[in-house]
C-alpha cells in the first residue's frame, strides 16, 4: 500500500468521516470542560440562575454546531455538492430552531441572561475555532487517491 494511504502516516490525507469524528470527539470533550467552567462562574456570579444560564449558554451552540458535524459524518460519502447542500440545509433548520429556542427563553427568570449570552458566545466561537483548525489541518483530499481521478471522474493530470 502506498505511504499516502496508510493509516497513521503523518501528513496523509484523511477522509471527511475521520475529520468529522475528530471534531465531534474533541468538541464534545471541550464542551464538557466549558460547561463545568461556565456553571462554576455562573454560580459564583449569580447563584443558581447563573449556573443554569452558563449551562444553557454552552449547551445550545454546542448542540447546534455538533449537528453540522453529524450531518457531515452521515453525508460524507456523497458528492461534495450534495454534502454542501445537506450542511447548508441543516444550517437553515438550526437558525429557525435557534430563533424558536430564544423565543421560548425570552422573559424567563430561571436563568441569568448575561451568563447565557457570555457562555453562548464562548461556546459558539470556541466550537467554530476548533472545527476550523481540525478541518484546516485535516488535509482533506479533493481527488480520489485510489483512482487518480477528480470528483467528476475526469483525469486529474495536466
From TrEMBL:
UniProt entry tagged with the keyword Transmembrane helix = yes
Regions that span the bilayer: 26-45, 51-76, 83-105, 111-130
Q: Which UniProt keywords apply?
A: Membrane, Transmembrane, Transmembrane helix
Name it.
Answer: ATP synthase protein I
Amino acid at each position: 500500500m502506498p505511504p499516502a494511504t496508510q493509516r497513521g502516516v503523518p501528513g496523509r490525507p484523511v477522509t471527511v468521516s475521520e475529520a468529522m469524528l475528530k471534531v465531534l470527539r474533541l468538541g464534545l470533550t471541550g464542551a464538557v470542560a466549558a460547561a463545568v467552567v461556565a456553571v462554576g462562574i455562573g454560580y459564583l456570579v449569580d447563584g443558581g440562575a447563573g449556573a443554569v444560564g452558563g449551562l444553557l449558554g454552552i449547551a445550545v451552540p454546542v448542540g447546534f454546531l455538533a449537528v453540522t458535524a453529524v450531518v457531515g459524518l452521515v453525508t460524507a460519502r456523497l458528492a461534495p455538492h450534495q454534502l454542501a447542500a445537506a450542511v447548508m440545509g441543516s444550517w437553515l433548520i438550526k437558525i429557525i430552531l435557534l430563533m424558536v429556542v430564544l423565543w421560548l427563553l425570552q422573559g424567563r427568570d430561571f436563568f441569568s441572561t448575561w451568563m447565557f449570552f457570555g457562555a453562548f458566545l464562548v461556546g459558539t466561537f470556541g466550537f467554530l475555532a476548533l472545527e476550523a483548525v481540525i478541518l484546516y489541518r485535516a488535509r482533506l483530499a479533493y481527488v480520489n487517491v485510489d483512482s487518480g481521478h477528480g470528483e467528476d471522474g475526469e483525469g486529474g493530470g495536466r
